[in-house]
């Protein structure tokens, strides 16, 4: 935190940009979870002025986009995994951890799935890895395998199992990873 003294002896305290952005995004996640994501609510939650919020995020849509980007994108973890099955498990572990945080934000977005394209990219990469490892079912095209993985990892499946049926995040991760991998492999 930087402290500046104005010439009229008024003391101003200014936080550094990354710290303020983090405070704003943390506050926005809380507000989204409480269905009150307005710039005024975020400012109050963060303990900042509305002007401070607007200095970092010119509008609500930009703030929503930053919230989605703050959560790790599903395709980011695929390349680091040692195998297609490990990539599937890693992606589902991340989704299990982040869907609860993402769900309130997703409700505020027009399409309801801010990771739609990122998940599709990750699922294609996983299907390609299964094919490269010689494990992809001979009955499935690459596109069909990708589509099946994409459907099984969608927010509706998480919501049905975790919210609707009371599954734990670990149960969701474990069983959906097993199901998804076995749905597309020999």
Give keywords:
186 residues, mainly alpha, Tetracycline Repressor, domain 2, 2 domains, two-stranded antiparallel ribbon, 9 helices, 4% strand, disordered N terminus
Task: Describe the fold and architecture.
This protein has 186 residues and is mainly α. The protein has 2 domains: 2-69, Orthogonal Bundle (Tetracycline Repressor, domain 2), CATH 1.10.357.10; 72-184. 66% of the residues lie in helices and 4% in strands. The protein is built from 9 helices and 2 strands; from the N terminus they run ββααααααααα. The chain has helices at 17-33, 39-46, 50-56, 60-70, 84-108, 116-132, 142-152, 155-164, 169-184; strands at 2-5, 11-14. A two-stranded antiparallel ribbon has the order 1-2. The longest helix is centred in the middle third of the chain and has 25 residues, at 84-108. It is elongated. The model is unreliable at 1-16 (pLDDT under 50).
